[in-house]
Amino acid sequence: MTSDLPAAGSSRVDVSAAGAWAVVLLLVVLDVAPCFVTFIEGDFARDLHAALRISQGRAFPLEGPIISGIAHPGPAWYYALAAAMKLTGTVTGVVAVIAIAAALRFPLACLLGRDLADRRTGRSFAILLALPGIGSLASTWIAHPSVTVTLVLAVAVALWRAEQRSSPGWLATAGAAFGLALHAHPTTLPLALPLLWVAARVVRRAGLRGLAGAVAALALAAGDGRRPPWATRRFFQSRDETETILVRRRVWIDGSWNGTGA
Fold this sequence. Notes:
This protein has helices spanning 5-32, 42-55, 76-88, 91-103, 105-116, 119-130, 148-165, 168-184, 192-206, 208-222, 233-236, 239-254.
C-alpha cells in the first residue's frame, strides 16, 4: 500500500520554491519600473555619447569613465552600453537593459542565501536588499555603479560554489565577475582577497585542473581592457581625436583660426 505523504511533501516543497521565486520576481519588477521615469544626468549622458561613438565605429576606448577625477576603470561599461544600443536602438532600451542587469541582484541574493543556509534565508536576503536605503538610488540614477551590487553578488556566489565544489569552472567564473566588478567601480578591489584564498584552496584540492582554473580566474580578473602601458595614445586615438589633432596642428602652423580649420 503506497502512501501519499511523499507526494504531498514534494508538493509543499515545490510550492515553497515557487513562492520564493515569485517574491524575487516581484522585487525585480518593482526595482526595474522606476528606471523608465528616471532622469539622464551628466555622467550617463557622457557614457551614452561614448557608447554611440563605439556603435558608429568612430572610437574604441581602452579606458572607462573617470572615477572622482583621478582614475579610470576598464571600458567594459562603454562597450556594454554600445551593445545594448545596437540591440535596442533607443535610449529607453539601453536603460531597460541596465535596469534588468541591476535587478539581477535579487535572484543572486536568493541563490547565495540558499547556498549558505536554506531557501528561506535566500528569500530574506533578497527582501533585505529591497529595503529603502542608499541602494535605492540605483532605480533613480542610472550609471556604472548601478550594476556594482549585482557583480559583487555574482562574485560571492561563484566563489562559494568554487570553494564548496572545488570547481575550476566556478573559480574562473568568479574571476570574470571580479574583473567586471572592477569595471563597474574600483571599490570592489578588496574582493581580490577572497578570490586569491579560494583559488589557493581549489588548486590544493583539484591539482592541475584547479591550477588551470586559478590561472583563468586571475587572467580574467586582471584583463580589465584598459590601454596597456606600452601603447601610445596616438595608436588608439579615435577618428574624432585625429581630426581634432590635425586642426590644432594647422592652427599652430598658420597662427590663425578661420573657423573651418582650413
